[in-house]
Amino acid sequence: MSACPFFCESGMSAIWTHPTFKSALVNALRKADFKVDVLTRNQAEPDFEWLSAELKNKVRVKTISKEKLGIINSHFKTDSCNFSVFDNEMFRFEYDVVNFKAYGSFNEPAIGQSMVALFDDCFDAA
Questions:
Q1: What's the CA gap between 51 and 47, in Å, rounded?
Q2: Using one digit for the tens of pLDDT, what is the confidence trace for 78-122?
Q3: Cα(8)–Cα(97) distance, integer angstroms
Q4: Cβ–Cβ under 8 Å, residues 30 and 61
Q5: Which terminal CB of the chain, N or C, has fewer other CB atoms within 10 Å?
């Protein structure tokens, strides 16, 4: 089963309740081989009460450890970023979390796969 990793500040962001995001997430989770892993910088977890029990079981949320947060900060040379990777190739990297400035790519498998490896290491340790 493929996992879509999200690394974010916390679950308090408006993105988790935005209607377009909610619809896209539900459609993605309905696929048999899709799940979502969310790693938060703070302990506030996204509220997925609006998901059915079946779909909610395909979402895992953890809080990153200070040690692993340092590794992500060092990797991206910043102490404040968010990112998500889709299909191990497509990714979105938010380098300015205050002003929501980000860049993304739909065809960078090496970068996407390195981000997934970094995320998986941090998620497994949380």
A1: 9
A2: 999 999 998 878 999 999 988 989 999 999 899 999 999 999 999
A3: 9
A4: no
A5: N
